[in-house]
Specification:
Elements lengths: L6 H16 L4 H9 E5 L5 H6 L36 H9 L7 E6 L2 E6 L10 E2 L2 E2 L4 H14 L19 E3 H4 L6 H9 L2 E8 L9 H17 L5 E6 L10 E4 L15 E4 L4 E8 L6 E7 L9 E2 L2 E2 L2 E4 L6 E4 L18 H17 L11 E5 L3
Length: about 375
């Protein structure tokens, strides 16, 4: 993204070689590639890279040819879209991912050694907790950041750079570090349904070539461990009573009020990164009965697969009573993947959650474009 922060560019090229050479020879790499679709963009700002000078601290090459910081050029969920012109690089990346369903991503930077997670911005709402801006999936974000940091050669020590603040366990909430508006990390999560980290990989933004082997050795296990986390949680399809995939259905976790609902793609597929535990899932789609099921989610990365769980919706048809509808099923719902009904103690929370979702739907939260990042991953459905 920033042309003068070059370590990520080199590491991603090295990662491509490691994956291709390791396939059918390295067990982890083979299982990862057999279960995961991986997209790698080594440089989002080639103009900046060409103009960069070999300096550890200064910003020549940070911006594109138009003098724009691409990591301030995305729409912002908290301050509105006040960007006068969307840069071509940003538009190109957005267009690239419109036809993909990305689940996990990483945006590689330099100048510090830390794994930073959303949110990067806040408008002082309920997301602002103390000095941090917290997402509904904060537990997952902390886990993802910790996975990278603890797998890294020294990031977990939290004090790698003499000119940078100390980071406990090598991770930080982005807003707590410093607020920024128009960043790709928040945009990817809010609109793209993709959990993204900002990975700061080196104290020096443009280090000498002699440092590269050590940087690769420090980051290789962390990159691989992080990519494996795409298999956290839950995945599957939303189907109607005839087994036809339902597009654009909302699949949400009770108690996690995302700014924009997570929705199924054109194949009726959904993906939710979740830590092991029991979760009540609510599935809604116009013309169908709202469905709630409680699902027990195991730890998926060890098996290179999140739990596959399909949801079957009942279609609603016009009733003989004017102005009303009735939900019917043309055949019984399959017994597999069925879960226990909601406990009575869950109803109060469910009502509040449903009202919130109705309000969000009325506001028609924008989701016409998905966000991209330097590394995109999503788990294959089967």
């Amino acid at each position: 993204m920033h042309g003068n922060e070059v370590v990520g560019r080199v590491l991603l090229l090295q990662l491509i070689e490691h994956l291709t050479r390791g396939y059918l020879h390295d067990l982890f790499v083979t299982r990862l590639l057999n279960s995961t679709r991986i997209h790698i963009l080594p440089s989002m700002n080639p103009d900046g890279f060409e103009s960069a000078n070999r300096d550890c601290l200064y910003s020549q090459g940070r911006f594109n040819k138009n003098g724009v910081d691409l990591n301030r050029n995305f729409p912002d969920a908290f301050s509105g879209d006040n960007v006068p012109v969307r840069e071509k690089e940003v538009v190109a990346v957005m267009e690239w991912i419109k036809n993909e369903t990305f689940v996990l991503s990483a945006n590689l930077h330099g100048g510090a050694v830390v794994a930073s997670y959303a949110y990067d911005n806040s408008n002082g709402g309920q997301e602002l907790q103390g000095d941090s801006s917290i997402t509904p999936d904060n537990d997952v974000f902390v886990h993802l950041a910790s996975t990278y940091s603890l797998s890294h050669g020294n990031m977990h020590k939290g004090n790698s750079c003499p000119d940078s603040k100390d980071f406990t366990n090598g991770i930080t909430n982005g807003y707590r570090w410093y607020p920024l508006r128009g960043g790709m990390q928040d945009y990817n999560y809010v609109w793209g349904q993709c959990l993204e980290l900002t990975l700061e990989l080196s104290c020096c933004k443009f280090p000498p070539e002699s440092d590269l082997p050590g940087l690769w050795e420090a980051n290789k296990p962390a990159l691989l461990a992080y990519m494996g986390q795409v298999h956290l949680g839950l995945k599957g399809q939303v189907l109607d009573s005839n087994g036809i995939p339902v597009q654009n259905a909302s699949v949400e976790v009770l108690g996690r009020l995302n700014l924009c609902p997570f929705r199924t793609n054109r194949n009726g597929e959904y993906y939710r990164l979740l830590l092991p535990g029991n979760y009540t899932i609510m599935v809604t789609c116009p013309g169908h009965e709202t469905l709630t099921e409680t699902v027990s989610v195991p730890y998926g990365p060890d098996q290179f697969s999140a739990l596959t769980h399909n949801f079957w919706l009942r279609k609603c048809v016009s009733s003989t009573v004017p102005g009303t509808t009735t939900c019917v099923m043309s055949r019984p719902r399959p017994t597999e993947n069925r879960s226990a009904a909601l406990k009575p103690s869950s109803f109060t929370a469910l009502i509040a959650f449903t009202v919130h979702r109705l309000l969000v739907s009325l506001l028609e939260c924008p989701h016409s474009t998905l966000v991209s990042t330097l590394v995109y991953l999503y788990a294959l459905l089967f």
